[in-house]
Amino acid sequence: MCELQFIKRINGNLTNKDVGELIKMLQFGSLRNPDAFGIYNNKVFFKNAGIVDLQNFDVGVFQKSNFAIGHNRYKTTGLAEDNNNNHPFVLNDFVLSHNGIIYNDDQLKTNFNIKSDTDTDSYVILWLIDHYFNKSQKQYRRDKIIEAIKKANKKIEGTLSVFLLDALTKDIYYFKNDCTSFYFMEFNKSVLIGSTNKTKFKYLYLNSGFLKKFRTEREPISIKDDTIYLINDEVILRELGTFKNKEESNKKFYGYGGGTFDKSTLEKWTGWDDNPQYREIKKEDLTAQIDQTLFDYMGYIPEYRFNSGKDGIIVEKGYFDFYNIFKDDLTRTSKGDYFLDLKKFLIATC
Fold this sequence. Notes:
Layout: E1 3-9, H1 16-32, E2 36-40, E3 45-49, E4 67-73, E5 89-91, E6 94-102, H2 105-111, H3 123-135, H4 141-155, E7 158-166, E8 171-176, E9 183-187, E10 191-195, H5 210-216, E11 227-231, E12 236-242, E13 254-255, H6 263-270, H7 283-298, E14 304-306, E15 312-315, H8 320-326, E16 330-332, E17 338-341, H9 342-346, E18 347-349
Antiparallel strand pairs: 1-4, 1-10, 2-3, 2-4, 5-6, 6-7, 7-8, 8-11, 9-10, 11-12, 13-18, 14-15, 15-17, 16-17
Helix pairs in contact: 3-4
């Protein structure tokens, strides 16, 4: 799967440190999502295959705006070497980045005769929004966009977490369904940060006084599923309405890095038993995925073992850094060791 990153200075333009924090989030996101990355605002965007590398790009241009959006890609459809397949996507005045998978994209491309230079499933979201925006009879631009988002989602089967930028007005729309995650955090009433992975918040603004406050008191801003939010110079996360996706004819299940899990495990974790599409993941593949994720977070792999149900891992209580990083998702065993539920640890979208 992919990751989305976001930063907005509430008053004034982004500082050099703000841009540095977004790049830090993108670099961290590249560890799990190494195929491509993108970064953009209403005036400029840059995207490329591979892990984050901005040596040939002047990131200082983002200090001329008060926000920036980033994307880390783990490809599912469309080669990353073809930059047309990487995020963000641009169509007329709209710019879009997406985390998730659209299951019926081929059908939509056929039904609507969607033509583009990209092979990715994500592009159909942008195309449909632009399509319904142009057909809308609403008087005001924002109302037309909201209507377009709702109508587009009625056609879409899949998982989604989306930033849609109206480059003409600088309005930013965010929406997600219940199979994806995203977290916003306001720092010191001056900066709004967002990320697919809330663990990143623990490493931002390390030299600031409000990091400690976040660790001890703050919780991410609650984001409702199936809700359209607006972010601009006047409002932060104003709810504009709700949407509903098309009921799915098939469900696909992906872990971080695009790996899927065997049917029995999925049914155990999700309660779904409607013959989802899946491929069986071998134990050594699962172990490799856990090892990589632990290394991404910690810089090394602590010793662990599977519990008897094979649906979690147990790490001995002496690994305090493991506890500090994953404490929100841990429970304790009878011996005081740390138990981490693999569903929480690996499943990115359902």
